[in-house]
Amino acid sequence: MRIGLVQSACTPSREHNIAQAVAGIAEAAAGGAEVVCLQELFAGEYPCQAEEHGKFAEAEAVPGPLTERLATAAREHGVVLVGSVFERRAHGLFHNTAVIFDADGSTAGVYRKMHIPDDPHYYEKFYFAPGDTGFMSVPTSRLAVGPLVCWDQWYPEAARLTALAGAEAIFYPTAIGWLDGEESLHREQYESWDTMLRSHAIANGVFVVAVNRTGREGPLRFWGASVVYAPNGECLVKAGHETAETIVCECDLARIEWSRTRWPFFRDRRIDAYGNLLERWGG
C-alpha cells in the first residue's frame, strides 16, 4: 500500500490553495500512491486565529462544490482521498470535517472532529461544534481508513477506539505550528506532538499518517513535518519543517499482524477495569 501526503503552504487565495491540493493529489498518484491525505482545512488559511464572524462565509455544505472537486480528483487519479473541509451543516452549525472518497469518487465516509481546542490563535470552539459521528473505520477499496483530525492527535482514547473499529491506518489532517514569542518552547512542542503520533502507532499496531501544513500565517508558523509511522513505531517518511512537499510512502499492511502478535496489547486489555474512563475525573 502506497500512501501519499500533500503538505502545503496556504495563501489568501482559495482557488490557489485548492489548485495546489489537486496538483498534489496528481503528483502523489503519479508516484504510485493509492491513498492520499491532505492537510487540515487545506482550502484556506487557517481560519481560527481570531473570532471573526466573517470567516463562516468560508464554510460549505457536504456534499458541495469543494467536495465535488475532491471527488473528481479521486476518480480521475484512482485514489482513495482524505480531505478536510470547513462544513456548514445548517444555519449556525459548523464542523471541522474529514471526508473520505473512494477511488471511484464516491463518498466512503464522513468524520466530524470530536475534540475541539480553544487556545491562543486556535479558537476552534468559536467556529466548530463537536463532532457527533463517533470514532470509525471507513472501508474503502484500498484499505480501512481511520479518520481523525488534528487536536484528536493528543487523545489515546480516540486512536484506540479508531483502531478497535478496524482501521489499518489512522489519518490525521493537521494544522499545528509555533507561536511567535514562545521560541523557548518550540522544540518541546514539536517533539511532544511527534512522540504522541508514534505512540499511537505502537500502542494500537496501526500505521499513523499525519499531514500538517507548513508556512507562516500571521503569528503562527506551521511546522510541517508530515510523517508516517509503522505499527512498530518506525518512522517511514517525514517531510521538512519549512517546505511544501508531496511524498509517497510504501506501507506493508502485513506489519499490522506482525506487530500485534509480538506486542499483543489488544489481547491483554483489561476491558473489565476501564469503566472510570467514562468519568471526567477520578471515580
Q: Your description of this structure?
A:
The chain has 283 residues and is α/β, with parallel strands linked by helices. It has a single domain, classed as Nitrilase/N-carbamoyl-D-aminoacid amidohydrolase (4-Layer Sandwich). It is 25% helix and 28% strand. The chain contains six helices and 15 strands. It has helices at 14-30, 65-77, 124-127, 156-164, 186-204, 254-262, and strands at residues 2-7, 35-38, 80-90, 93-101, 107-112, 138-139, 144-147, 169-174, 177-179, 207-212, 214-217, 220-223, 227-229, 235-238, 245-250. The chain has a six-stranded mixed beta sheet with strand order 5-4-3-2-1-15. A six-stranded mixed beta sheet has the order 6-7-8-10-13-14, with helices on one face. Strand 4 and strand 5 form a beta hairpin. Helix 4 runs parallel beside helix 5. It is globular. The mean pLDDT is 97.
Task: Record the SSE blueprint.
Elements: E1 2-7, H1 14-30, E2 35-38, H2 65-77, E3 80-90, E4 93-101, E5 107-112, H3 124-127, E6 138-139, E7 144-147, H4 156-164, E8 169-174, E9 177-179, H5 186-204, E10 207-212, E11 214-217, E12 220-223, E13 227-229, E14 235-238, E15 245-250, H6 254-262
Parallel strand pairs: 1-2, 2-3, 7-8, 8-10
Antiparallel strand pairs: 1-15, 3-4, 4-5, 6-7, 9-12, 10-13, 11-12, 13-14
Helix pairs in contact: 1-2, 4-5
